[in-house]
Amino acid sequence: MKSRSLLFWTLSASLLLGATALWWSPLNQDEGWYLLAAQRVNQGHLPYRDFAFTQGPVLPYVYQGALPLLRSLGLLGGRLYSYLWSVLSLAVIVLTLRRHLPSKFRLFAVILAVALLGLNPFFAQFSATVKTYSLAGFFLVLAFSTWLEFQQSHRPVQLGLCALMLAAATATRISIGPMFIALGIGLIVKRKQLGHRAWITFASAGPAGLALAFVPFLLLAPDGLSFGLWEFHAGREIASPWLLRAGFLSRSLQHLLPVAVCLILLIPRFKHWQNGVLPVMTGLALISLLHLFAPFPYDEYQILLFPALVLLIAFEFPYHLPEEKLPLIASVTALYCLLFALSSPVLQGWFGQGRDRIWIQGAAKSQLHHLRDTADQLHPLSPGAAEIFTTDLYLAVEARLDIPRGLELGPFSYFPDLPTDRATTLHVLNSERLEDLIRQTRAPLAALSGYSFSIQSPSITPVPEETFTEIHARIRARYRPIAIVDTFGQSNTRLNIYQLKKEPNPENRD
Q1: Which parts of the chain register pLDDT below 50?
Q2: Which residues contact 407 (CB under 8 A, 6 or more apart)?
Q3: Residues 6 or more apart whose Cβ sits within 8 Å of residue 27
Q4: I need a labelling partner for 503 at 20 to 30 A (CA). Which of 113, 137, 249, 485 fits?
C-alpha cells in the first residue's frame, strides 16, 4: 500500500475508534465532577474558595468552552470538547514532525504517530472521558513542540513558551511538575553550548507561569488549595500498595504495548538520540514514577503523557531505521496497531456486560445512552425542577439540573471525621453537615446510586454499614421512592429515584 493511502486509512480508523469511544466509553464519576466545576466557575464561584476541587485550577476555566455543548448535548457535549483537545494534540504532533524532520522521514513519522496514538482504545476512551488528561496532554505536547523548536533555533523565547506551557499543564494536572526538574537540569548541563540565558529564561518563565495560576488561589483560599492538591490525595488508605503498583505496571504495559515495543528498541540507542530528546524522556520517566508511587496508582494517569511520548518516538525513530525499509515498517506498524486495537480488552469493556455462567452478556445500549434515558425521566416527575439531590453528578449534568452546595465532589463529598468548622471552610460534608443538608434541602428530586454516601473521604474506604443505612433512612424520611433503575452509571449500580414529600405547613395547624 502506498504511504499516503496508508495514512488515509490509518487516520480514518483512528477517527472511527474515537467516535465509538465518545458514545460507548463507560461513564466515570469524575466526568460530572469536572463539568460541575466548570459550571460553578461560570456562576461566578472560585475553586477552593467557594467549592471543593482537587486538581489544578486551569480545567474549570478552559472548560467554559464546553458549556454551550453541554446545554445542547448534555454529557456528550462535554465528551466532544474533551476529545477535541486530544485531536489538537495529534495536530500539534503532525505539524511538529513536518517542521523538524527531514522530508524523507516526515510521512513515515506521521503514519507512526497516527497509528500509535489514534489506534489505541485506552487512549481513545480517556480522551473522550471528561478528565484532566486531554487538556494536560495538549499543553504538554505543545511544550515539547516549542522545546524541539529551541533545539534548532536556540532562541530563548521558545524556552519561555515551553516553560509557560509546562506551567499550564501542571496547573491542570499537578503531577506534571517533575518535568521542570528534568528540562532545567538538561539546560544547566549544556549551559556552555547554549549559554546561561537559556536556563535563566526557563527558570524564570516556569515559576512565573505557576505563580500566575496558583498564587491568586493561595492568597484567597490557602486551606482549600492545599487540601485539594495535597491532603485529599495523600489521605488515601491502601491495604496492599505494592500489589496495586504491580497492577499499575502490568495494565500500563497491556494498554500501551505498541509504544512499549518502540521504547524497547529506542532506549539502548539513547547516546545517539537527537538534541533535547533525552531530558524530555527523563522527565516522562520521573512523572511515571510519581504516578507509580501515588497513594492509589491508576494506570489511566499515564494517558496524559501519551501524546508527548508518541511525539518523541515518531521524532526519533526514523533516524534509527534503514531508509529504504521505512514504507514497509510503516505498513507493518499500522497493521500491528490495528490488530492491537481490535484485540484490546478495552473494547470488550465497552460492549460487554460480563458473563452469566456460560452466557456472555452484550450491552444493548451504551452507559451514556442509559444516562440519557434516566435523565429524560426526571423532568416529568417534577416539572420546573432546578436542582436534584445526588452524588452522581453526571446525571445532574445530563438533566441540566444543579445540585445542593457541598456535593461538588460527587461520591467523594463525605468526610465524616472532619471537624465541622473545617468541613465548612473546605465546602465538603462531614456527618453533621450532611445531616443538616438532608434536613434542609428543598431539591424536589433525589437520585441515589450505589456510590451515594458509600465512600468516606479522604481515606476512600467504605462507609460502615450502619452509618450508610442511617444516612439513607434520613433521606427516605424526607423523600418517597418513585422509580428504580437497576443498572445505572459507573459500575452499573442500582439507582433509586425519590420525590420530596409534601411537608405540613405549620401555619395551617389548629
Answers
A1: 508-510
A2: 389, 390, 391, 393, 413, 429
A3: 75, 367, 368, 371, 394, 489, 490
A4: 485
The three three-digit cell numbers of residue 357, written as one number: 455462567
pLDDT tens digits along 13-62: 999 999 999 999 999 999 999 999 999 999 999 999 999 999 999 999 99
C-alpha 297/C-alpha 478 separation (Å) is: 39
Rg of the chain over Cα atoms, rounded to whole angstroms, equals 25
CB of 115 closer than 8 Å to CB of 11: no
Q: Which of 121, 125, 118 is nearest to 25 (CA)?
A: 125
Tell me which residue of 501, 493, 503, 464 sits closest to 389, measured CA to CA: 501
Q: What is the pLDDT of residue 362?
A: 78
CA 56 vs CA 139, 160, 177, 420: distances in Å: 13, 21, 11, 25
How far apart are alpha carbons 30 and 392 in whole angstroms?
9
Non-local (6+) Cβ contacts of 382 within 8 A are 444, 445, 499
Report helix, strand or coil for 227.
helix
Q: What are phi and psi of 296, to 5 degrees?
A: -135, 100
Phi, psi of 131 (to 5 degrees): -140, -170
pLDDT for position 296: 87
pLDDT digits (tens, 9 = 90+) for 139-155: 999 999 999 999 999 99
pLDDT at 358: 73
Task: Label each residue of 262-331 as H, E or C.
Answer: HHHHHHHHHHHCCCCHHHHHHHHHHHHHHHHCCCCCCHHHHHHHHHHHHHHHHHHHHHHCCHHHHHHHHH
Bond from prior residue into 458 cis (ω within 30 degrees of 0) = yes
DSSP 230: I
Residue 458 · residue 235 · CB < 8 Å: yes
CB atoms within 10 A of CB 297: 22
Rounded alpha-carbon distances, angstroms, from residue 236 to 248, 291, 450: 17, 14, 20
pLDDT score at 126: 97
Cell output for 300: 489511566
Q: What is the DSSP letter of 229?
A: I
Closest residue by Cα to residue 378 from 264, 232, 499, 208:
499
Q: What is the pLDDT of residue 510?
A: 41
Phi-psi region of 487 (alpha: psi -120 to 50; beta: other; left: phi over 0): beta
List strand residue ranges (DSSP E) for 357-492, in order.
359-362, 388-390, 445-448, 455-456, 461-462, 479-488
CA distance 174 to 256: 22
Residue 464 belongs to what H/E stretch? none
Q: Please give the pLDDT value at position 505.
A: 60
The rounded percent of the chain whose pLDDT value lies above 90 is 92
Answer for the pair 284, 180: CB distance below 8 angstroms, yes or no.
Answer: no
